[in-house]
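Private note to self, pasted from the team thread so I don't lose it. Backbone tokens:
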């Protein structure tokens, strides 16, 4: 994934692996 995008790709991958509750913490 392109690193230029920033944390967006990372957030998507993490959210896909972790439960929705983690998404709120990441935001």
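Design output:
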């Amino acid at each position: 994934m392109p690193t230029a995008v920033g944390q967006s790709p990372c957030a998507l991958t993490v959210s896909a692996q972790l439960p929705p509750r983690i998404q709120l913490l990441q935001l």
